[in-house]
């Protein structure tokens, strides 16, 4: 655990030191769980958005994108169920005065049980070597079976209690398992109560006539209320999808773990409209498609797993999370849900407007069913950033910190580095910079030794460093250094655009999905 905490502290520290993420309003002591993206963070974030948008919209002719408003009619949130049901179970520790989500306390307890099961499997794998049969061991080992059965029992009981709004039983479960405040060890808990997560605001110039509104807690409803507009103007037949990237706001009970859980965050969502009865087939298809999209980033297949929901949301008939192994363990990265016709039917009822589709093949009108894919942009940023941050010991015994980001996502694609400013090297380097800047985001650096400049660019994830020396003025060649291999090559200036593009363009990434 201590090692995980150290890794996470390094991630947070590196993000600030190298211009990726800053605490918001820091000179005024900041705001809890609100962060600003710095110069490199904004570039990385925008590149992640591009990767998602290109894969989702550009690569699928039956998916289009929109950008809906943050302020929406308040009845929308009544129709969607957010006014009545968008709650989390809250519990306070009487001694530490700290506030927790009761369900998360129980889920973390189950995660520890799974860690114990995994340790048993790892010990056995080491003991038996090549002859180890993991499937047989998992199905017969009494300790692994006990840990996993206990997990299952706890999660099923939690799901049932939350479905029935039996908060007393949630507290009983916490007490029976002797779950303590993770920071202080105290087991002195309050009752569990529900907490609505929406931020309220007002629309209007005069307070007495202002309309009560909410900051949207999700981006999906902006898609649903525009479904008919998009379908008619795009003339798409079912199945078709609507994608959106946008801000959402939730008054989280516990907003911790850096940018993993924030009160202002960004979502990348796609709602796929399908004929009734086909939704579970498309649900399975999109589960695999979305996993493939993540795997193409090259962060390691072992760092992903599916988690099927025990407790389904009121709108769903199937739901699963793609979980990622963050420095603090496996946590939700993306959700895939079969939302049935709940949303469109609810908006039909509350708005009085028909939101049906006439299916020529079936010769009938119906409210489409929906399959949703929803990934938290900030969580994805953290997954990519934390996985890419590495300390390496080199052959000569020296060390370097490198951010081995997927090249297409790197904030800076190449650094232009004149060996020195004088003797015309600076002017020649600037000429190369001015030629390449139309195609790539570059930085120009002439301060400090070339070694220090290499290290700075390793730390921000720059795929290439291009060094201009006196020979460059004679033969129009430069030294190009690869971030990951540190291999240096002499290449013609005329070839730079092609060499950089081959490694950093989105085609390379998208073709691996």
TrEMBL record:
Name the UniProt key words of this record, in alphabetical order: Aminoacyl-tRNA synthetase, ATP-binding, Cytoplasm, Ligase, Nucleotide-binding, Protein biosynthesis
Q: Name one Pfam family in it.
A: tRNA-synt_2b
Q: What is its subcellular localisation?
A: Cytoplasm
Binding positions (ATP): 250-252, 260-265, 332-333, 376-379
Annotated EC: 6.1.1.14
Top-rank taxon of the source lineage equals: Bacteria
Q: Which residues bind substrate?
A: 101, 218, 265-269, 372-376
Report a single Gene Ontology molecular function: ATP binding
Q: Name one GO biological process term.
A: glycyl-tRNA aminoacylation
Q: Which PROSITE patterns match?
A: AA_TRNA_LIGASE_II (PS50862)
The residue ranges of the Aminoacyl-transfer RNA synthetases class-II family profile domain are 177-411
GO CC annotations on file: cytoplasm; extracellular exosome; microvesicle
Keyword Nucleotide-binding attached: yes
- Residues in a coiled coil are none
Assembly and interaction partners: Homodimer.
Q: Record's family?
A: Belongs to the class-II aminoacyl-tRNA synthetase family.
This molecule's function is given as: Catalyzes the attachment of glycine to tRNA(Gly).
In terms of NCBIfam families, this protein maps to: glyS_dimeric, PRK04173.1
Q: What is this protein called?
A: Glycine--tRNA ligase
What is the organism of origin for this protein?
A: Halpernia humi
Q: What is the lineage of its organism?
A: Bacteria, Pseudomonadati, Bacteroidota, Flavobacteriia, Flavobacteriales
The gene from which this protein is expressed is glyQS
